User: What shape does this take?
Amino acid sequence: MDKGRTSKGGREPDARHSDPRIRAVLAISAAFMLAMSSGCGFIGIIPLAAGIGIGLSAGGEDKEVEEPEPTDPLVSGVSPGVGLASGGTTVDVYGKRFQSTATVRFGSDNAASHVYHSSTWITCTTPSHAEGTVDVVVLHLDGQSGTLAGAFRFDGSPPADVTSFSASFSGSDINV
Assistant: This one.
């Protein structure tokens, strides 16, 4: 069409309908018209509210529906993963979204003590516990918790302490 000319019927072309977003909104709006019919014939057309469930504001602009950020703690690792059943092993718990008031559990038992370093790191001391593997849980005061399943093993055997040894070389004894 030449510049300055009008379309058939003497009207300016409707630029709103050339925008693909407008065409999409019109198509969606048309989809919300429900044609009712029965065995006796046509009953009528019932318009439904535009924008229902499609994320459009009254102005026709797209709206992003934002999911709320999670606030529950996430436990991603512990180090070391093995300690004595008698307790007393210092364990670093790693993850994210830890609160300063969080507590740590080994299975169903609270850690003997813990120190909050940051939202990603807590150091704690294991309680005494029966031998076996347990989940490590970080628990917030509001009841939210994060669990790392099977993350720690309580072992009943303490490491051997070497207090002395002796060796024999070519007939000479060496004692330490």
In short: The radius of gyration is 35 Å. The chain has one helix and 13 strands. The longest helix spans residues 20-31.
